[in-house]
Amino acid sequence: MEQKKIEHITLHLMVFSTIVVIGVLARQTALHYGWDEFSSYLVLVVCSIIMGAIYLNLQMALSQILSPSIEKCFMKFECYCSKIAVVEECPEPIEEDIDVEPIVSEPMIEVETTSDTSEEVSTPMYSETDEGEAKLPKEDAPPSIEESNQPSEYEVLRASAMAEKERASQEKLDKVITYTKRTLVPYLDEESLHRLCGYVAEYYLSDSLPKVESIKLSSQLKTIDAMHFGWNIGKAFGKPRLQTATFIKRVFAYTLRDVETSTIERKMSHTESECIIKLDRKIA
């Protein structure tokens, strides 16, 4: 009985893990094609529900339709029918074949004290054992609360590494924000430049593309300048080219209105044409 229960639990865990993996893959695919984070999570939930429904329908079909059909096919064989007849003839209660011996309780042996001396001798023995038991907790005293609350060496090293990683990440973001302000301040008004810096920071800190409102660049900048700017910040952040191309396509929608995302991805690092914003590999 316990073995069958473990097998059922293992089967359900495997099916649940498979459904979760398929849902995560569907979410990653949605993010890859530029969907927002809410829509990608909705895709994960819907995909998981659909896969669960498919699994339940298949299980019901196997148990209600295929199992009787398979059993009818096997009933045509004489050896299978004979095995079923043997199983039905065997008595179900196995306990009848086992001789259960009644448990006979042994009589309690009562010890009578014949003299007062035996009582006097036994009394000191109990007191000594009680003193020994009373001393044991003092020898094996538990560690104090202050010692147990002290962080381990692993926790200290991990906290230090996480702090160093956070510091390096913040330093990289600050350099890219400084580059953005220094490069585009002649071609944007103050409000647009402030919004662009916010979009760049959100793009770096989030795995998905942020929701943005289009920012119109000055007419002095060409499409290749917007592409070079996108390539520079994407290179500094370590982001994929396609994701960076999609980001600048949304941010500079007016400037890049005649250019497809695939073209931006392919030409964002080209240097053949004249431009104002040059490629910079050493921003961060």
Characteristic key phrases:
about 280 residues, about 0% strand, elongated
Structure explained in plain terms:
With 284 residues, the chain is mainly alpha-helical. It is elongated. It has helices spanning 2-32, 37-75, 78-89, 116-139, 145-149, 153-184, 190-205, 223-237, 241-251, 261-267. It is built from ten helices and no strands. Helix 6 (153-184) runs antiparallel to helix 8 and helix 8 (223-237) crosses helix 9 (241-251). It is 68% helix and 0% strand.
Strand content: under 5%
Largest sheet: none
Structural class of the helices, strands and pairings?
mainly alpha
Can you tell me the overall shape? Answer: elongated
Residue ranges: pLDDT <50 for 5 or more in a row? Answer: 91-102, 109-129, 131-139
Count of discrete alpha- or pi-helical segments spanning 4 or more residues: 10
H and E order: HHHHHHHHHH
Q: Determine the N-to-C terminus distance.
A: 62 Å
The portion of residues assigned to helices is: 55-70%
**Mean pLDDT across residues:** 78
Give me the count of strands: 0
Radius of gyration: 38 Å
Would you summarize the structure shown here?
By secondary structure, the chain is an all-alpha fold. It is built from 10 helices and no strands.
Blueprint (SSEs and pairs):
Elements: H1 2-32, H2 37-75, H3 78-89, H4 116-139, H5 145-149, H6 153-184, H7 190-205, H8 223-237, H9 241-251, H10 261-267
Helix pairs in contact: 1-2, 6-7, 6-8, 8-9, 9-10
